[in-house]
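Q: Study each token:
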Amino acid sequence: MARVMILGAISLAILFMAITVSSSRSITITVSEEVENQQSRRCQQQIQQAQQLRSCQQYLRQRSQSSEEEEADQSRGDIQRCCQQLQQIQDPQCRCEGLRQVVQQEQQRGELQGRERQEMLQTAQNLPGLCRVSPQRCEIQTRSWF
């Protein structure tokens, strides 16, 4: 009889622990989804304040479409304005998110092909380093880029 009661008590304890662990997982997921949503909203706000990184978009477009001689003259002002816009974004993760959005917009325009597309992506990834802001490089992944 004592064995049955001990086994019953152990079974109840295991069941209680399983329920507790299960409920804490859902709380963790909910909290992390909320944190992710707040981060996304904060990034969108910072990107908007930095004028949607329009100068960076212009710089990337010119850089991928022009010859090297044209590039030096035309893009000097754009890179400076782009760097200023990147500096306006306080959160380093948001800088990369903003550049990812710029690259994605250019991809959706559909005007760049092959080498130009790859060059734009590589330039965008290295822009923070050129502008001397952190992170030095952004890992940008877009859907169906290649």
